[in-house]
Amino acid sequence: MIRPITPLGKLAHPRQAIDILDWYKEILLAGREIELVVSFEHVISVVNKELNKNNGI
Questions:
Q1: pTM higher than 0.85, yes or no?
Q2: What is the 8-class DSSP label of residue 14?
Q3: Could you tell me the residue ranges of all domains in the chain?
């Protein structure tokens, strides 16, 4: 499953994934740049939260 990062730096909910991927595609096809700055610690934190949710912790 693809879980893109939202413009706010969070993992997208699976139901939002298609809309967000389309949004990114439109921006890139228009020749605009996307700047996304997310720290490694933030990514690890978000991934751990998702894993804990999926494991019922």
A1: no
A2: T
A3: 1-57
